[in-house]
Amino acid sequence: xxxxxxxxxxxxxxxxxxxxxxxxxxxxxxxxxxxxxxxxxxxxxxxxxxxxxxxxxxxxxxxxxxxxxxxxxxxxxxxxxxxxxxxxxxxxxxxxxxxxxxxxxxxxxxxxxxxxxxxxxxxxxxxxxxxxxxxxxxxxxxxxxxxxxxxxxxxxxxxxxxxxxxxxxxxxxxxxxxxxxxxxxxxxxxxxxxxxxxxxxxxxxxxxxxxxxxxxxxxxxxxxxxxxxxxxxxxxxxxxxxxxxxxxxxxxxxxxxxxxxxxxxxxxxxxxxxxxxxxxxxxxxxxxxxxxxxxxxxxxxxxxxxxxxx
Length: 310
What we know:
- The chain is an alpha/beta fold and 310 residues long.
- The protein has two domains: 139 residues, NAD(P)-binding Rossmann-like Domain (Rossmann fold, 3-Layer(aba) Sandwich); 163 residues, L-2-Hydroxyisocaproate Dehydrogenase, Chain A, domain 2, CATH 3.90.110.
- 44% of the residues lie in helices and 20% in strands.
- A six-stranded parallel beta sheet has the order 3-2-1-4-5-6, sandwiched between helices. Strands 7-10-11 form a three-stranded antiparallel beta sheet, with helices on one face.
- Helix 1 crosses helix 8.
- The longest helix is centred in the N-terminal third of the chain and has 22 residues.
- It is globular.
């Protein structure tokens, strides 16, 4: 039995940091690919030179030839453009759809047995595009958003209450954006719902900060966007799949009637194991929470229709 082959497409900050985390967790051998000649090779070599210090045995290869992902067990797609000043979300949507659509075709050709995790924004829409282009079973295509959004919510809860991050669990559903649906009722500290630990006003403030978590970091950095937390979230999902941990984590997955939603990707809790999305967990939602989830899914659907029309 050889080590699993993990392909990370896109060697920017998110992709390269993801490769680092996968190597340090010793989850498999890694191929880091990008169209920028020399960049993935340089970052891969740097990571290999860190291996003697960190003690991981993973082989990390950099390449600008997408064919080198051949036979990958799992593929992470981070490639795409960040939004630049003066660029509308629609501009970003069409440009990234062109990039990710081409990559999905390559994944279908070179790694037909892979499980795919999509990170490129707008995330839920790009995940739907990859699903459609690869023709893969829906269990093998998912988007990384819920783990990141939940991690942000957990961080803010721990900071607010002054408690260990290890005791905080949180659940965030819906699309990755302003329409996401944090669920305070399902967010706990050592099993105690946060609704019993802080005022509705403070919870509302944390929910709002969670929704704007990515934008807050972009505004502070002035250029670029978050990559430490996004890469950690990807690595968490990859570990659950590669090691068959069967963790219950929120992810953007294809819904086939769950929560009253059909043929749309939205963030919901799922069981992640060696087959990919092994189960979709249906939480009991209030009418208000369910309406918010439907509204979030509808926004994703509209964007999918925009790229379909092209």
